[in-house]
Amino acid sequence: MPKFLLDAQLPRRLKGLFDEFGFESMHTLDLPNKNRTTDKELIRISVETDCIIVTKDGDFVESYLLSRKPEKLLLLSCGNMSNSDLEILLRKNLLRLEKEFATNNFIEINRDDLVIHS
Description:
The protein has helices at residues 13-20, 39-49, 58-67, 83-101, and strands at residues 3-6, 24-27, 51-55, 73-76, 106-109, 114-117.
């Protein structure tokens, strides 16, 4: 079962959604440096704990493409949307994400669908 690490720009309440579906998750606010945790440190933590980084931050995409770090990445490219709408979007796709992350390392979710990057 995948584990998730939610980046600082995401609402902490999403952690509860992941937990509700039975996934282990943490938010940057759960870390010692909280939302001041650097991207480099998040990548290190994700590798050590085998977590998928969940982010809207394109810097993680660049890092993934250049060095395959983080090892697993979920990019939320759904633009500006309310926290409630973001929660609905994730709720609709979490089980499919679990299945896709069994064989894929970089998945993007937009307003309409999942995009599997090879």
